[in-house]
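tool_call predict_complex ligand=shikimate-3-phosphate
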Amino acid sequence: MKLVATPGSPLNGEAAIPGDKSCSHRALILGAMAQGETRIHGLLESDDIEATARAIEAFGIGIDRAADGDWIVHGGGWRSPDAPVDCGNSGTTARLLMGAVAGMPGVSATFTGDASLLARPMLRVTAPLARMGAKIGGDRLPIAVGGMRLGGIEHRNVPASAQVKSAILLAGLGTAAPVQIVEPIPTRDHSEIMLGQLGGEVGVNDTPEGWVVELGQKRSLQGRELSIGADPSSAAFPLVAAATVPGSDVMVRGMIVNPLRTGLYETLEAMGANIELSNERIQSGEIIADIRVRHSTLRPCEVGAEQIPAMIDEVPALAIACAFADGESLIEGLAELRAKESDRLGAIVAGLAACGVAATADGDSLRIFGRGRVRGGARIATQGDHRIAMAFLTLGLAAEQPVEVDEAGMIATSFPAFTEVMRSLGADIE
Ligand code: S3P
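tool_result ok
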């Protein structure tokens, strides 16, 4: 399915953004590792989360959808599945579940996925798990894991990856040995927060070497109710559209504003975007707030490598904002973008060029030479990447000519209602 975004209409109103993808994966997986029932409110319903739910069911875990839309996970009692576990397009599913299973004596499984996932690096997870004593190896799926009682580890999380940190923490739940992760640049801490919600214990210390994340002695989890806030990575698209389309004013309620996720919004503010946060509150251990973005003139930005983990999935959206700024933007430290669902760095540069915006990727730095206005009028190759598709449709709404994306089906991995939500704000996407 292709989609075309046509410029001209301002975006106004409240955007109904679904639950956060990272937290949704974790709620299902940790709920399945806990004893008893975990009731999840606001779970994202998308292909990636479906992949996690199906994968957990393959281990014998029961999952139901209640009449009110909540999801209920009946935790405990994992057994080995009969067939390879298909993680679809989802790196988080594969990496977190490999960690979980590695620490479960007597449970074993082989993990696989779609063509994009089969091409993504896994050694970053299998190497530290093997150092803990796990029966696991290899850099590409399919990968077999044989669960056992593991030893401890002290792992330096470089390149910065929340998935790697989470895999180690989940593996560590099955041992009493010391499990420590040192993060020179901190990454999203949703696993740590949710482990605390379910009765686990994770300590965090700020040291000269970085943040030291450590499992405490309480490592058995109890099911409970969890509520998931709106996903800042999905909200990025309507909110960048609001910042770039003249006359726009868009609100997202209850969005996760965990500071390890808000790099895009801080950068947009530094670019002169009109952003208002209100009603900050805590929900299931996470900070959420209402966020309102109105159109304004944007300046170019400079983003250093240490800022990237807090906006790793938002770089395509940020690149679109930079295209509309007048001047040269520089975003550094993007090597990891080449190992996402596609080579995102290459896809951003090629897409911007097709839309008449000069951009270069030099090593792991991205330069975008904005002129305050963007021609558009292009057909974008998404390379099967949901965030590239949504980013260039967003660009099309503020450009001079419509933008078409060649394949929009993958948007369902993270934000199935993207088109409806954008249309409800007044966007012309067909
Ligand atoms: C995620 C961590 C990030 C991010 C991914 C989700 C997570 O990946 O890009 O979309 O849920 O932990 P890395 O851990 O590979 O940086």
